Amino acid sequence: MVLSVAGNSLVSGFIKKYGMKLGAARFVAGETLKEALEQVKLLNRDGLVVTLDHLGEFVFNEDEAWASTRACLDVLDGIKASGVNSNMSLKMTSLGLDLSKELCMKHMRMILDKAREYDNFVRIDMEDYAHIDVTMEIFNELRQEYGKHVGLVIQAYLYRTVDDMKLLEETYENLNLRLVKGAYLESPEVAYPNMEDVNKNYKKIIEMHLLAGHFTAVASHDDVMINFTKDLVKKHNIPNSQFEFQMLYGVRPETQRELVKEGYAMRVYVPYGNDWYGYFSRRIAERPANAFFIIKNMFRK
Asked: Cβ(245)–Cβ(226) under 8 Å?
């Protein structure tokens, strides 16, 4: 229903014209890289580190895939030139993954060549279930080529997640993973339908990855998961340098800064770009609970 409303030409036209002023700017750091970098500087000033993400809609041809690739290269150049403390996240479908794996690999190597040149880091976002196998294949190839300069996202709500992580952890040292609950609406054949089970599995993979000695990005706004991580690292004397918390730009900003004051690394996912409307709509529509979540967190500290 949300997407059908969002897809209405009158609604979308109004929101695209006025949405940034009416509230979207809370969650999207501008339409241009320059605007986004200014926000990154402000976040850095408060002790927060960042991952930048150039927003893109569906890619239907090679020209569009190249445009998205060029934008990613510009992000890395912008980070280097401005001196901000940020890495980059991307979705491989925006680089042409649905057109061909070869095209996507070509673009990924261009991006990672630059990340390695600048000694920066690129996080590959995990997308819906249909893209998981090919994403894992590509990550394995790129991890062997680029080592510490590339990382991956793992989703707790999938049944296969623990097995996927075991295989990755047995294969690589210093494996940098972002652990999330998962935001896509998937079939109960492949994903836990109940949040209680998702939360249980999320705790399991946080503990599993940390105790294996790998770098762990705990990407959650859930106090239960944040406190679970704090207790776990304290119990096992895990150094703060082995993990970080991650949250979305504009969601619980005061909590983000409180974590920094407590001595934890706190990374903010900062999206920007002309295609912010699609991100904003999907953030709410991907899972029904997100609509309530966004509204609730607008009033939380």
From this structure: yes
Average pLDDT on 191-195 reads: 96
Q: Which of 53, 98, 125, 275 is catalytic?
A: 125
Q: Give dist(CA 33, CA 125) in Å, integer.
A: 20
What domains sit in the chain, N to C, each tagged with a CATH number? 2-297 (3.20.20.220)
What region, left, alpha or beta, does residue 47 occupy, with left being phi > 0 and alpha being psi -120 to 50 degrees? left
Q: Where are the beta strands (DSSP E) in 9-85?
A: 49-54
Q: What is the pLDDT of residues 6-40, one digit of tens each?
A: 444 443 443 444 445 445 677 889 999 999 999 99
The candidate with the shortest Cα–Cα distance to 253, out of 269, 229, 274, is 269
- 231-269 residues labelled b (16+ CB within 10 A) or e (exposed): ebbeeeebeeeebbbbbbbbbbbebbbebbeeebbbbbb
Q: Look-up: residue for tokens 């940020």?
A: 86
Has 222 been annotated as catalytic? no
Residue 177: which H helix or E strand, with range?
Answer: strand 177-180
Average pLDDT over residues 182-195: 94
pLDDT of residue 26: 77
Per-residue pLDDT reduced to its tens digit, 136-157: 999 999 999 999 999 999 999 9
Among 178, 252, 267, 283, which one carries the catalytic annotation?
178
Is residue 199 within 8 A of residue 192, CB to CB? The reply is no
**Euclidean distance between CA atoms 103 and 112, whole angstroms:** 14
For this structure, is 98 an active site residue? no
- 32-37 LR contacts (CB < 8 Å, sep 24+): 32/272, 33/71, 33/74, 33/75, 33/78, 33/272, 34/78, 35/272, 36/270, 36/272, 37/78, 37/79, 37/82, 37/84
